[in-house]
Amino acid sequence: MAKRKIVHIDENKCNGCGLCVPNCHEGAIKVIDGKARLVSDVYCDGLGACLGHCPQDAITLEEREAAPFELPTPAEQISELRQWPIQLHLVPPQAPYFQGKDLLLSADCVAYALGDFHSSYLRGKNLVIACPKLDAGQEIYRQKLVELIDESKINTLTVMIMEVPCCGGLLQLARQALAQAKRKVPVKLIVVGRQGNINKDEWL
C-alpha cells in the first residue's frame, strides 16, 4: 500500500456529536458507541471536507499507508446509520448525536421490507428501533421518547411501521410521549406494506 493523506479522529477529543458524518459524502465516517470512527480507508478521499465541521477539532489529516481511495459503485448500498446503539432500550436519550436532529422511530421489521430503507428514509436522520409486540418494558420507551423530545430537542419525529396490526402500538407510544412532552415537534407517519410498498406517508 502507498502512503496518502487520510482522516485521523482523536477519540479523546470527539464528543460524538455526529456533525462530521453527513459531511463525509463517501460514507467513511460513522458514530459508533458514541464516538466518530473512520470505518473504511477505501472511502476516505483524504480531502478533509469533514474537518471544518468538528466543533472539538478532533479530526485531522495524516499521511500513512492506506488502501487507495475508491468511489462507491452505484451497485453498492452505503449505510446511512449515524450512531450506535439503535435499540430504544439501549439508546442514551441525551447523547450529543440526538441534539436537535431529525429522529426516525422505526419498527424492527421495516428495514427488511424496504430495499431502499437507508437511502430513502434513514439518510440524514438518527435512528431508534423497537418492536411494540415483543419488547418488554415499553413504559421505558415512552419515557425515553419524552426525553428525546424535551431534553435532546429533536427537530422532527418520523414513525415508520408495518401495515400489520401489532405495529400500531409503536404509533400509540409515540403519541403518548408527544402528549406528555413539554415541547411539540412535527410528526410524520409512514406505513409500509408487506411487499415493500408505501401505504401511507403523511404529516400528522
TrEMBL record:
Domain (4Fe-4S ferredoxin-type): give its ranges: 5-34, 35-64
Q: Pfam families under this entry?
A: Fer4_6 (PF12837)
Q: Where are the transmembrane segments?
A: none
Q: Which domain of life is it from?
A: Bacteria
Q: Which InterPro entries match?
A: 4Fe4S_Fe-S-bd, Corrinoid_activation_enz
- Gene3D superfamilies cross-referenced by the UniProt entry: 3.30.70.20
Identify this protein by name. Answer: 4Fe-4S ferredoxin-type domain-containing protein
Taxonomic source organism: candidate division WOR-1 bacterium RIFOXYB2_FULL_48_7
